[in-house]
Amino acid sequence: MSFYASEFIYNGVPSSNFGLTISDTNASDELSLPGANVSIISQEIYRKPKVYLFGVKQTPILTIPISIFKYPEITAEEASVVSKWLFGQMDYKKLQIVQPDMQNIYYNCILTDPQIIKIGNIIRGFRATITCDSPYAWEFPKKIRYNYPFNNYYIETVAKINNSSDSPDYIYPKMNIAINIFGGSVKLINHTDNNRIFEITNLEQGEVLDIDNNMQTLKSSFYINHLKDLYNYNWFRYVPGLNYVTISGNIEYVEFINEFPRKVV
Fold it and tell me: Do residues 134 and 196 both lie within one domain?
């Protein structure tokens, strides 16, 4: 997704505060790539014409050269403030381009290699590189929530969850799960993923679980360590496309928080 002289938001601060716009310096290059390439990990075998494939690695991380301008000029004082805001960050920040076809997308990035653009002795803007945390941009998180009657001892339903990610790999979502007034267990079976089981037992009445399957963290509102109660240390995940998931247990609600990777063109 190319962008041309658009306003932007970086680390929660809109560029309109400074009268700045951003443009992709590769926007006119018809051969520019959308990122999300793969490198092949393989092994040649003596006297065998076919190599052995171990797998692939999604690489390289997404980088986009950009220019940032203000008309007619940026004062030295403004340049100092803008430079402190945009450059030299210690970790990844969200960058959103304010244009209609990118309203649900952001880059998780650090702006690197900054240069000042001058015409004569007048500062016109900056050049830099968007250096992302992955080969993808990201879709803003969307929540899917399934509520159940609080006085139902045990529930069992089937949910259809569409993994519309642009990645061909597994997606490990975040989840919030509330246990009902009876306490007990929660079990999710993803039938599309070879009936893979995600199950946690020994849960307390009214307990709320905050789960990040990608980072493999499980936090309890009662500060109980439930890692020992996680079946086979299986974390919940989606396969690409439509996933059929049986949800069962002593549950008040289950909430899936999906933040899908997106290719940019």
Answer: no
Q: What pLDDT does 47 receive?
A: 58
Q: List, for residues 55-92, the tens digit of each pLDDT value.
A: 555 668 999 999 999 989 999 999 999 999 999 999 99
pLDDT at residue 1 tops 90: no
User: Quick one: tokens of 239?
Assistant: 């396969």
Look up the CATH number of the domain holding residue 220: 2.60.120.860
Range of the domain at 109: 7-33+61-139
Give yes or no: residues 14 and 133 share one domain: yes
